[in-house]
Structure formats: structure tokens, C-alpha cells
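Predict fold of STAS domain, putative; 101 aa.
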Amino acid sequence: MSDLFSIQFDKDAQLFRVSGELTLDSASAVMAETETLFDTKSELDIDLAGVSRADSASLALLITWMRQAKQSDKTISFRNLPNQMRAIAGASGLDEFLPIQ
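Predicted 3D structure, encoded as C-alpha cells:
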């Protein structure tokens, strides 16, 4: 686990909680950690409320997770996108494609 971010599964809420930074600096470490972590569930509900800093790499991560979920016949949804991520998604037109709750 990185000092920049953490990803934990909340058994009670049945969702993944992401916190810390989702930036270019942490993107490869986030991908490495989620590669096996997400294998355990057929439905991926990802709570991003704890993300403290985000850049365009964070949206690339969401898109990669969406692609991986589709390839594995899993459903995925995102909740509590930080304002930074919403702004970037809106400016790039990706907000229409993201499965946001």
C-alpha cells in the first residue's frame, strides 16, 4: 500500500473506499493494488469520498477500471466523486459515460 492512497473494502457497506491522492504520481501503484483486489467481487461499488487530490490520471483510472469490469463481466459504479474529478470529467465530456451514483 502506498502512503499516497489507500483502498479498503467495507464489508458492511459492500463497497470499496478509496482515499488519498489519485494522481499521476500514484496511478501505477493504484492500478497494481486494484488488479487483484477487485477480483474478489462481481459488483464493484467504489466510493471516492476520501480522495483528497485528483488530476486527469484519476479519470484514466476510472476508465481503466470500467474496461476491466466489462472484460470480466462485472458491474461497476462510482459514488461521491470529488469536485476536482467532476470538473475534469465535465470538461472532457466523460461525465456522461461514467456510471456515477
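The mean pLDDT is 90.
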